[in-house]
Write the structure tokens for this entry.
Amino acid sequence: MPQPVTTLVQQTLNALQVGSVYALIALGYTMVYGILTMINFAHGDIFMVSTYLGFFAAAWLLGLALNMPPLVIFLSTLLFAMVGTATLAVIIERVAYKPLRQAPRLSAVITALGVGIFLENFTLAVIGPEPRTIPPLFPLVNLNLSGVFVSTIQIVIIGVSVIVMIILDTIVRRTMTGMAMRAISFDKTIVPLMGVPVDRIISATFALGSAIAAVGGILYGMAYQLDPYMGIRIGWWAFISAVVGGIGNIRGAFVGGFILGFVEIFTPVFLPSSTYRDFVAFSLLLLLLVFRPTGILGRPIVQKV
Amino acid sequence: MLLDIKDLEVYYGNIRALAGISFQVDEGEIVTLIGANGAGKSTTLRTISGLIPARSGSVTFQGKNLLACPPHEIVDMGVAHVPEGRGIFGNLTVLENLRLATYSVKDREEIRRRFKRVFGLFPRLEERKGQLGATLSGGEQQMLAVARALMTGGKLMLLDEPSMGLSPILVREIFRTIQEINQTGTTILLVEQNARMALRVANRAYVLETGRITLSGKPEEMAKNPEVQKAYLGG
């Protein structure tokens, strides 16, 4: 392949890799917003905690030296991080957000920021500031496909993300819990009259959104370094992804995540340095808020009388 | 006695919405509460369903105190509520709206039976089962709201202004359906501003005025009462 084409394919692949992590985290923002119309600003830090849970699970499993097949180690790590993160998020919702359900929305948002700061500093105090990497859970191979390099990690990240998104889409569309979530996002005052325990659905939403963020966390942690503040930038980017796609809209979060992946990878191609990426991402957010505040797939909310 | 309400007092902040009302609904009856806007009709139904807390008094359904229960459990106990304004989930299909109302029912055979009954009463909904709730007409949405309440399997159905916003023909149709549902064993507590229609179908009636019950009795007698005629039946 000619050089410009291989570069384009290579960068597209990189963008899909980064974008799938943003998409996975954006889902958590969008789901919580969908049912509570609240931005859970602690979500980026919940993602950060999930990477550490994965780190410890992987290190422990590999330390046992039982010669488990890589797939078993990978899946156990994933499962541990998902369950741990989901539990954390459900506890956070109960303790920090539920008492504020009747309070103005701003109170819950400020509390969420506070929870995020707590998680960052708790991690810093307990685990320390030094960057870590999740040990390789399966053989790292770089495949050379006529000039385009594809790593096994890249394939796993993109593949697993797509699978998770399909599963989530199915849950939301086909199960009773998913139906209840969609009903709550439309009119939560009526949902209890259907015999649906709304609090349980809210907990399920937090659990599901955080478990998905944990999948993103493990995938991210295999390719990049972890530190207690990693959730801030990634959290913001995932939040922008959710807004760009149309907050509250699950498919929009997928789309927004990939768009932000392309912004991240292609910014240095067109602008002098990758340090412009935040400028481009936030400009995108601002432009969108001005010209299409409901996002790409979002629909305007009709105020009911 | 199916439902027994005693000295029920409800406040919104400092504003008293119900000033200690008492009434009963017996099994198999259609009981109506009529009254003007703001009299407390919807508040009464919403308190029975557990959507708003009571300050004092009691709500007893089949011997159990409902005031201590969260709304979803009250539904499971057998109180179905068709809310004011219908409350259709516009982003869900007709089928999903109905299915959601069976949230706590695990028996698939029972769910199938309820669908059959509901589609028997409302063939129009079966025709439109794949459509989103938001695309239905007002009359169809009211049918869906009643159908959804039936899907919860309630023994007592609370109906909040089913005639609101409907043409006279549709109002008659919906009231006919209400009587039909009643004849198949569902007790009905009906709240209406359309007193004429409500008094025509009810077995007993109460008049609610600014949070107090001021009159009660047989609908035929009430319809002859000059004050009721003047206030609610247009002279």
About this structure: The interface with chain B takes residues 176, 179-180, 182-183, 185-187, 189-190, 192-198 of chain A (CB under 8 Å). Chain A has a mean pLDDT of 91. Residues 38 and 153 of chain A are 34 Å apart (CA to CA). Residues 3-291 of chain A form a domain with the ABC transporter involved in vitamin B12 uptake, BtuC fold (CATH 1.10.3470).
